[in-house]
Amino acid sequence: MPSPPYRRILRLIFAYDGDALSLASKHLVEMTLPPSHELCSSEGKAGFWFELRDPHGRPLYRRIQHDPMPRYREAHAPGATPTHVTALRRGVFEILVPAYWEAATLVLLATEHPPVAPFGTIRAERARSGGPRVGTGAAREIARFSLDDILK
């Protein structure tokens, strides 16, 4: 495994439409990339991250980041209470991974988000029984890509 800072980077651009996710483009670039986040077990953890894994499924590189495919957005209007609105579930996002030639797969993991619910008053929000607006459950695999397929 190369030592940081990583210099040969794969810039991967993904397109999504609802829950469908596909690789839109790829580029090999020379740049500095931050080191991996900790590679300890992520079982039961919430959030969004991606991992490069070796042929045995062991993580080689992990980056935790904001969910690039949000379910809702917070909307503000002058003089009005903020509200949650359903996000357009179509777009693109980019991830940067070190070009580890010994990596076999790229795995994306994410926590399921609850349905969109409107804001209420502060009192109503505190008493709300519907649970939090962000996902808090364990992340699950949402996509897996073979590095052989990516590098074709």
Automatic annotation (TrEMBL):
Q: Which domain of life is it from?
A: Bacteria
Protein name stated in the entry? Uncharacterized protein
Task: Provide the species name.
Answer: Paraburkholderia atlantica
